Amino acid sequence: LNGRDSLGKWESEPYGLAVWNGTSWKLKRLYAMYPNTNASFTLTPSGILVFSKDEIWFADNNVFRWNGKDNFVTPYWLNADKGEIPNPIWRKFYQQAWCVWGTSGKNLYAGGTWGALAHFDGTTWRNIETGTDSHVRDIFGAYNDKKKEYEILAVGSPGAGGSDRKIFQIRGTSASAITHYPIPRRLTNVW
To answer: What is the Cα 122 distance to its own chain's centre?
Structure first.
C-alpha cells in the first residue's frame, strides 16, 4: 500500500498494513530488523493470520509475529534471504513464505515458493517436504467433528507455464499430494 503525504505527493516507503479501528482505516508501517545488523525494512505482507488483537502473524518472504501495538515485529527467519541466517530450514534457492495458517501460535504453518512448507510448534520451525517445486500458494484447515481432528489442505501451482499443480493434505509435520490426475487450471486458494 502506498499513500500520499500532506502535500499530495506519493510516498516512496510503502505501508504494509491497513488497520480498522471500528470507525475508519489507518495505514501503518511495520518494521523488522535484518539479522545480525542494525538495519530494518518495511513489511509488505502477502499473508496474514489473526488470532487476537495482540497476536498477528504475517508472511513476507519469512514469517513475522506482531503484538498489535509496536512498530517492530518479531522475525522468524526460515530462509537466508535477508542475510546470514545460521541453519535456515528452507535450503532451496530463494524459497520465500507467501501464506500462513494455523490454530494458534503453537500450531502454525507457512507455505511459499519452490515447494516451501513449514510447521511451528511455538518453539521450533520444522521443514515439511512437499516433493514439488510448485509454489505453495495457500493453506487452510477446518475441524472435522466426526474425525475429531483438523483436516488441513494446501494448494501448489507453479509460475507461468508450469503444469505441476497439486493439492496437499497436511498431517502434523508431513504433507502428501492427494491429487493423482492433471489439474487444468492454476490453484491459488483453498478454504
So the answer is: 16
- Only one residue has cell 504453518, namely 109
Distance, CA of 188 to CA of 127 (rounded, Å) = 21
Encode pLDDT of 73-107 as tens digits.
999 988 866 556 667 888 766 789 999 999 999 99
Task: Name the one residue in this structure whose C-alpha cell is 505441476.
Answer: 164
Neighbouring C-beta atoms of residue 31, cutoff 10 Å: 14
Tell me the three cell numbers of residue 105.
501460535
Give helix then strand counts, H and E, for the chain: 0, 16
**Contact predicate 110/120, CB 8 Å:** yes
Contacts for 86 with CB less than 8 Å, ≥ 6 apart: none
pTM metric for this prediction: 0.88
